[in-house]
Specification:
Length: about 450
């Protein structure tokens, strides 16, 4: 079918009132809830690190659409790969064979540490992958108890929600059992202050007093996302792995937000911690906006589930996997990991200057292009400033930035832009943040 034979496109009402009215009328309450602004921000198109609203106002996307956009909006290589596959075959269930998902599994496995036999199970999303990782750990070890960090976020499905330690993401229903939480090693406001050993001691106490003494595993984000961009200090993940494995458990690393070259020093954030996980969960940026997730596990762990299949209808979809292959190619060819390190380092340095100008700024932290500004009422007491954070956040939108608020107290401005953010953008981002803080 050539272009002249294509049927007319379906009508789309791009009026602001029409978009808002339809969403309010037809979205379920659970899906209407997740909005950052009182006045809706409607995104019409994107290119690279920029997006435009329905009125053609341009924004610098510091959120990457919740970290899903890794190599840039509408990247031509990803568009080409996905479009070519859609035209050839839109879906092939895993009941049958197709080369694209198999190639992609091989390429994903090749990003993992050498010396181990890695296999891949594709899912549609990160939350699905978290559920599978939980099931896999329990199936492999024969144990039930899991540990997670108190300010963790792993998803909103029933299993993933049970592993999530932030109240705002846990519904008021009985949660999946067998999960105990330990204090996160937050070097800014953690209950034990700075350091690693007191937080590792909490893991041992939790094993001794909150579990059967035998673990299925522990799940850790190398850099907590919704928890407020909290990087795990060096030595913590390695020390945690030793205690977890001594109790019979597996180390599960959640790279849904921190992975795919985002932190700059390594392709996967855990690589900077001198540890090899047993299971790695990936999603979001691996598909550059195309729904795609995966559990990457050591073969012996995954083989524990060989007796019964576990099926995700669109897992290993060839279009999504074609996009995933293109993402890996673009990151390598355009040196986006190095870009995340350099541009992220420059942006963090500039953002740190905000502490000298505004008393509201308590901390600036993060790695690569995964950064945060934490706002406090008082730097000595570190009392969170959620209202002020909301005011600054609203001002950033007026000043042409798309960011988000996160953290247990909603007092953290979170920045996780596409990896193609450039040095040319750094001054502009900084100027817009200054104007936003001055407006409060």
């Amino acid at each position: 079918m050539n272009q002249a034979q294509l049927p007319p496109a379906m009508d789309i009402d791009w009026s602001t009132d029409g978009i808002v009215a339809r969403r309010e009328r037809y979205y379920a309450a659970s899906q209407r809830k997740f909005v950052p602004f009182k006045d809706p921000l409607i995104i019409k198109r994107g290119r690279g690190q920029y997006v435009w609203d329905e009125n053609d106002n341009k924004y610098i996307d510091l959120l990457g659409m919740n970290l899903c956009i890794s190599v840039g909006h509408a990247h031509p290589e990803v568009v080409r790969a996905a479009t070519a596959q859609v035209a050839e075959l839109t879906h092939c269930t895993t009941m049958f064979y197709h080369p694209v998902p198999a190639h992609y599994a091989e390429e994903l496995a090749a990003t993992m540490p050498n010396g181990h036999d890695w296999v891949v199970h594709f899912t549609n999303s990160g939350a699905e992958a978290i559920d599978l990782a939980l099931l896999m750990a329990r199936a492999h070890t024969g144990n039930i108890d899991m540990l997670a960090l108190r300010s963790s976020y792993h998803g909103a499905t029933f299993g993933a929600q049970a592993l999530t330690g932030i109240a705002g993401f846990r519904h008021n229903v009985p949660q999946l059992g067998g999960v105990s939480f330990v204090a996160e090693p937050n070097q800014y406001r953690g209950i034990h202050g700075e350091g690693v050993e007191p937080y590792l001691a909490e893991i041992k106490r939790a094993i001794d007093y909150s579990t059967s003494g035998r673990l299925a595993g522990m799940i850790i984000e190398p850099v907590q996302g919704y928890g407020g961009i909290v990087p795990m200090p060096k030595g913590y993940i390695k020390g945690a792995a030793e205690k977890i494995r001594a109790a019979g458990g597996l180390l599960i690393i959640d790279e849904v937000q921190s992975g795919v070259a985002r932190t700059g020093e390594a392709f996967w954030s855990f690589e900077s911690h001198d540890v090899v996980p047993d299971i790695v969960v990936v999603a979001k940026g691996v598909g550059n906006g195309i729904p795609l997730g995966a559990v990457i596990a050591k073969r012996d762990v995954a083989e524990s589930m060989a007796d019964k299949f576990l099926f995700h209808t669109y897992g290993a979809n060839p279009v999504a996997c074609a996009a995933g292959r293109a993402v890996l190619k673009v990151i390598r060819e355009e040196k986006l990991q190095e870009n995340a390190r350099k541009v992220g380092g420059a942006l963090k340095a500039r953002l740190t200057e905000l502490k000298d100008r505004f008393e509201l700024v308590g901390d600036v932290r993060g790695e690569g292009l995964m950064l945060a500004i934490e706002l406090v009422k008082d730097r000595q007491t570190k009392e969170p400033a959620p209202d002020e954070a909301l005011a600054v956040f609203d001002a950033t939108r007026r000043n042409g930035l798309v960011a988000s608020r996160s953290g247990p107290y909603r007092n953290v401005i979170r920045m996780c832009p596409p990896l193609c953010l450039s040095m040319d953008d750094v001054d502009e981002v900084m100027d817009r943040f200054v104007h936003s803080f001055e407006a409060v």
